[in-house]
Amino acid sequence: MAKFDYDLITIGAGSGGVRASRLAGKYGAKVAVIEESRYGGTCVMRGCVPKKLLVIGSHFANHFEDAIGYGWSVQGAAHDWGAMIAAKSKELDRLEGVYRRILRDSNVETVDGRGVLVDPHTVEANGKRMTAEKILVAVGGWPAVPEFPGREHVITSNEALDLPQRPKRVIIVGGGYIAVEFAGIFNALGSDVTLIIRSGQILRGFDQDVRSTLAEEIEKTGIKIKRDYLIRSVEKCTAEQGGGYSVMFDMGDEVRADCVMYATGRAPNTGKLGLAEVGVKLNSKNAIAVDEHNRTSIGSVFAIGDVTDRINLTPVAINEGRAFAEAFYNNNPMTMDYTNVASAVFSQPPVATVGLTEEQARKTHKVRLFISRFKPMKHTLSGRDERTLMKLVVDRATDKVLGVHMVGDDAPEIVQGFAVALKCGATKAQFDATVGIHPTAAEEFVTMRDPVPEKEPEA
Length: 459
Prior knowledge:
Layout: E1 6-11, H1 15-26, E2 31-35, H2 41-46, H3 48-68, H4 81-105, E3 108-112, E4 116-119, E5 122-125, E6 128-137, E7 141-143, H5 157-160, E8 169-173, H6 177-188, E9 192-196, H7 208-220, E10 224-226, E11 231-236, E12 245-249, E13 254-257, E14 259-262, E15 266-268, H8 275-278, E16 301-303, H9 314-329, E17 343-345, E18 351-355, H10 358-362, E19 367-374, H11 379-382, E20 388-395, E21 401-407, H12 411-423, H13 428-433
Parallel strand pairs: 1-2, 1-6, 2-3, 6-16, 8-9, 8-14, 9-10
Antiparallel strand pairs: 4-5, 5-6, 7-15, 11-12, 12-13, 17-18, 18-21, 19-20, 20-21
Helix pairs in contact: 1-4, 1-9, 3-4, 3-6
């Protein structure tokens, strides 16, 4: 008689949980996945995929404007926000069906409901208890909104993806990637957008040149950035007052908006899972603490993805899920390599980066910098005032390229290829020896020859 009902119970059917579960099932394990919301998780249902669809949809506004410079006459173009949201939702329904089928085809049982740990080998869902040799927690993160008067009036990225109509005036609180991406979407489609950041610059953690370049470029498009600001309260206005919301700032000034969105970060979704009761240790950010093998403080309980707050990216969660399944169900021990993980911000223009920022590199290396700023070829005729930034951070001693950074059209597509080069330990000499594809923006990364002059040390 089997000791447990399952070999593996996974709580959470996001990208990481699905990858781990379907591979484990493929390798012969008896697996169940418990999901209380939609299959596909944050990325597919509330993040990367729907957001990218909206980004693509908003790009057409600029394409129509740019086409005039190339001789096109564009008349009568109008955007239907509701139609775009409906098309997006239809695609998400299709993708959820795909995720469910992937699990079904991998002999994985699915349970719709909230999974809560009862003990190191038991999970309860829908009033039913199930046991497993191993339990994998892959519940991701959730938008975090601080407490303040009027908190109930604001939305997060979750709700922004399903707004029934586009707000004319939008205040977005936050300067991270979610904030600047939604700012670009709303702005391109015609909304008046204001970004509220409590620091002096957007995109904390990114290279300083990337941060300042993107800020300059999005301000050119009409997005307003209020720096060193904090919201004191939000109040709903009456019809007599013109509707919308009144936003009061700590400096005493007031701004009216039709929508107030908070994008001040995401928190590990660890609440009410029974983790503490079972003895699973959390870190100072309430993320599940794990070792390199994704094992928690309880030997039978594991965790992957955003709930561990390591590198919160979908491909990272997928690779963590693969490593877990390979190690425990395919006799193929492996761990996730977190060095040189590329990432992108689908702002307008977009950002992509891999490796160390200049600031990170200077802490441990003597560096050479190579920077190029130029107007993209497309805009020589479109007339759009937009510039591209490309930057290489190179170790002076070894000539190894430590970081690749770009702000500009197609940045994510371009930097993905250079991420392979950094994984291989490419040197600047090897970049220089590579023949570029002309005429492209990408070729600039292999034609930058002159390093930025070093600043003289202050006396």
